[in-house]
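User: tokens in, sequence out, please.
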């Protein structure tokens, strides 16, 4: 017996292919084919009730949206893939951790301030700020939440520092500094040398040797050294 959609069905109540209701047995001819009245509606599956796309009369699914003509439901949406490991926090340092403890001593340098001829008032020099260096790549700059910039060495008090000013990198024993296209440049000078006049070429790494000073901004001087025993907790 054939259903109104043209499927061969062994059942006489509902088509066992598409599930459409079968006409009464009185409408069948001797060959088993159902004769539909002239007023019968178009076969199920011709127009999708979900997106109104036209499909073949014997289609089981809508080619447009995937609507299931047999069950009258939309296909189940795939669940988004989840990662076993949590994603790092925005702005987090994802470079490898250092096995040996290093620190950066950050000073307010009156001589560098005078050389830069800044119009901003000079802060009190005081004692240096000691910043632990915990990764092989260290960003120097000024924090910006709107731009998702979280420097490892935040020099936001120095108005001459760019958001992403410079990058320190290390192989664990030697250090290099790279200017990231800052507005006022990054300079490296020796411990007993005069103040440097030539900035580090942006985009090129320059080695920072033991005792070297890194100058940047309106008054900042920085020295990279190994941490003293017990100076950095957790490293």
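Assistant: Sequence out:
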């Amino acid at each position: 017996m054939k259903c109104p959609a043209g499927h061969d069905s062994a059942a006489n109540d509902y088509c066992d292919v598409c599930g459409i209701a079968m006409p009464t047995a009185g409408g069948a001819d001797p060959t088993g084919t159902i004769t539909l009245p002239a007023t019968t509606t178009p076969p199920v599956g011709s127009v999708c009730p979900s997106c109104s796309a036209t499909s073949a009369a014997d289609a089981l699914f809508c080619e447009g949206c995937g609507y299931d003509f047999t069950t009258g439901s939309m296909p189940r949406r795939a669940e988004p893939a989840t990662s076993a490991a949590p994603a790092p926090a925005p702005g987090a340092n994802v470079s490898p951790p250092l096995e040996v403890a290093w620190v950066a001593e950050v000073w307010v340098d009156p001589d560098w301030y005078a050389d830069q001829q800044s119009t901003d008032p000079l802060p009190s020099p005081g004692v240096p700020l000691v910043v632990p260096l915990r990764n092989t790549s260290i960003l120097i700059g000024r924090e910006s939440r709107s731009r998702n910039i979280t420097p490892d060495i935040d020099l936001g008090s120095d108005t001459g520092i760019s958001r992403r000013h410079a990058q320190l990198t290390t192989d664990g024993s030697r250090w290099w500094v790279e200017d990231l296209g800052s507005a006022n440049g990054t300079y490296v000078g020796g411990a007993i040398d005069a103040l440097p006049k030539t900035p580090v070429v942006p985009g090129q790494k320059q080695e920072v040797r033991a005792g070297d000073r890194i100058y940047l901004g309106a008054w900042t001087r920085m020295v990279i050294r190994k941490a003293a025993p017990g100076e950095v907790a957790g490293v």
